[in-house]
């Protein structure tokens, strides 16, 4: 990789690895290309281990400044061929390049136009070799969503089109767990029962016969880990109820052993009054269905009125609402604390994953618009519920969730009265952003109607070194339009493992929002300057 010309970014390390912070932070210059700036370039090489000689492989994929190499896989029995997946920079076109190692040559064997959205780097190429004893044509497995849903396909090594579709339907193959070439089986997890669930299946490489390895008639979020020879596997039940693990032989459906039944944890949890979790499928006017999760306070009383916190992430291809077991966390705390008793709602809107390519790519080149509209639409549904205090509805998000929260605040829908924005993926551009920029404007919408009946508080929190989003946009937020905006700085090297503690620091704002939502925020000490909230 060549980083020549890539601009640098100064990262302050306030503690600098010391117990007591130095008078001045340690400053590290790193190569950090931002939107429209020079990116690193990559080339493909082969290293001969016996001689340590390096050969460069020329290929006809994309121009150097527009090239990403996303995946590399050997597709041979004795390293005679290697295949790599090349994308253009905006990742809406891909070419698979086959390299002849002995000759040092290459050719493009597969191409795809994904300009209806973007192409994920699935990292799923796995070589299976010949499928008959005669040792004829060699094959590999790959995932593709060219039909609208990600499925398993069998390709010949030099082929340009699939030889066979191993799975099909309006559901997603979520992961390839194991390929057992000896038995001719591919084990995989899928959303066939529901997009929020994962069930384990096998499919024959030769016949395409599919077999479920778990009960597909029940809710479940399963995972599996196979032995290297494929004869045994650990089956993990990961939700929605308390997880457990069993050991199986592939030749029997009776477990050989229980590795973990979490009986001790179950006994401990039984001593506590815990929140309950409900799942919903929301029928959206667009014709799509949005998955939602609702955490209710212990001893929930439908005759009472409860404040609500929306807790979205909503990033492209992500999934927050699943049937995976949800361990006790800060969400359960704010639902359980007698002074808070918040209902916590998470909605996976358009653009999120596992509901098909059209659903996911509907947000392309307009990130932040449909997602925000979906949160407001869902917020109105909850606000209309008899047990919801519609005057006390808040939203909090981290990273893309922070950006999404900012966009919801910007809509000024009158649904939410508090926005907690952490490490938003946003940007401020002078001049305006380049035409290929994928996000809607992260700035304040000047046409806001100011129709909120309650004071609108927007609190920005941003780590000094977030692994994806720089903190300049949060630092540059201004106070204006009668809206208080805050900046809270956290001089830690990375957001983890302190993420939970920073979430806890945001909790008092929820309490204040509930107790004082009818009072407008105090004016800042100096107009036009950020409001700094000290720890």
Structure commentary:
The protein has about 525 residues and is mostly beta strands. The protein folds into 4 domains: about 1-40, no CATH class; about 40-120, Roll (Nuclear Transport Factor 2, Chain: A); about 130-135 and about 145-270, 6 Propeller (Neuraminidase); about 270-530, Rossmann fold (3-Layer(aba) Sandwich), CATH 3.40.50. The chain contains 7 helices and 29 strands. It has helices at about 265-270, 330-335, 355-360, 370-385, 400-410, 470-475, 500-515; strands at about 10-15, 25-30, 45-50, 55, 65-75, 80-90, 95-100, 105-115, 125-130, 140-145, 150-155, 165, 175-180, 185-190, 200-205, 210, 220-225, 230-235, 245-250, 255-260, 275-285, 290-295, 305-310, 345-350, 390-400, 420, 455-465, 485-490, 530. The strands form 7 sheets. The protein has a 9-stranded mixed beta sheet, sandwiched between helices. The longest helix is centred in the last third of the chain and has 18 residues, at about 500-515. The two termini are about 40 Å apart. The model is unreliable at about 430-440, about 440-455, about 480-490 and about 490-535 (pLDDT under 50).
Please give a handful of descriptors for the protein shown.
single chain, 535 residues, mainly beta, Nuclear Transport Factor 2, Chain: A, Neuraminidase, 9-stranded mixed β-sheet, 4-stranded antiparallel β-sheet, 7 helices, 29 strands, globular, disordered C terminus
């Amino acid at each position: 990789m060549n980083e020549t010309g890539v601009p640098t970014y100064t990262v302050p390390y306030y503690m600098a690895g010391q117990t007591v912070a130095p008078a001045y932070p340690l400053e590290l210059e790193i190569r950090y290309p931002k939107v429209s700036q020079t990116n690193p370039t990559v080339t493909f090489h082969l290293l001969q281990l016996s001689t340590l000689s390096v050969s460069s492989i020329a290929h006809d994929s994309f121009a150097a400044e527009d090239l990403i190499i996303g995946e590399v896989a050997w597709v041979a029995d004795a390293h005679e061929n290697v295949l790599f997946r090349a994308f253009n920079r905006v990742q809406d076109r891909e070419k698979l390049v086959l390299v002849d190692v002995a000759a040092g040559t290459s050719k493009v064997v597969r191409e795809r136009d994904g300009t209806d959205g973007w192409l994920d780097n699935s990292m799923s190429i796995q070589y299976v070799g010949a499928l008959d004893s005669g040792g004829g044509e060699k094959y590999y497995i790959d995932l593709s969503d060219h039909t609208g849903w990600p499925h398993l396909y069998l390709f010949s090594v030099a082929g340009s089109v699939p030889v066979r579709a191993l799975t099909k339907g309006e559901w997603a193959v979520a992961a390839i767990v194991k390929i057992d070439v000896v038995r001719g089986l591919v084990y995989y997890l899928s959303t066939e029962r529901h997009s929020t669930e994962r069930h384990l299946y096998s499919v024959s490489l030769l016949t395409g016969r599919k077999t479920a390895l778990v009960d597909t008639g029940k809710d479940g979020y399963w995972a599996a880990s196979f032995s290297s020879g494929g004869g045994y596997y650990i089956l993990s039940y990961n939700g929605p109820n308390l997880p457990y693990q069993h050991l199986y032989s592939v030749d029997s459906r009776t477990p050989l052993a229980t590795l973990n039944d979490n009986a001790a944890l179950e006994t401990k949890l039984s001593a506590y009054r815990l929140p309950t979790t409900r799942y919903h499928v929301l029928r959206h006017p667009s014709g799509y269905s949005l998955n939602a999760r609702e955490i209710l306070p212990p001893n929930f009383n439908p005759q009472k009125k409860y404040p609500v916190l929306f807790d979205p992430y909503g990033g492209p291809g992500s999934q927050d609402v699943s049937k995976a077991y949800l361990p006790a966390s800060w969400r359960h705390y704010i639902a359980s604390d007698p002074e808070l008793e918040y209902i916590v709602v998470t909605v996976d809107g358009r653009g999120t994953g596992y509901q098909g390519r059209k659903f996911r790519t509907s947000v392309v080149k307009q990130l932040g618009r449909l997602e925000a509209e979906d949160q407001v639409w869902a917020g109105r549904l909850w606000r209309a519920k008899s047990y919801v205090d519609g005057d006390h509805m808040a939203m909090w998000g981290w990273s893309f969730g922070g950006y999404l929260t900012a966009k919801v605040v910007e809509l000024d829908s009158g649904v939410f009265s508090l926005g907690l924005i952490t490490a938003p993926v946003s940007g401020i551009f002078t001049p305006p952003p380049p035409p290929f920029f994928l996000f809607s404007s992260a700035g304040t919408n000047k046409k806001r109607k100011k129709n909120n009946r309650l004071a609108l508080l927007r609190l920005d929190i941003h780590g000094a070194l977030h692994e994806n989003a720089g903190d300049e946009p949060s630092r540059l937020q201004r106070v204006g339009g009668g809206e208080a905006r805050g900046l809270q700085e956290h001089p830690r090297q990375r957001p983890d493992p302190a993420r939970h503690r920073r979430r806890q620091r945001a909790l008092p704002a929820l309490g204040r929002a509930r107790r004082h939502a009818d009072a407008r925020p105090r004016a800042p000490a100096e107009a036009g300057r950020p409001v700094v909230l000290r720890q």
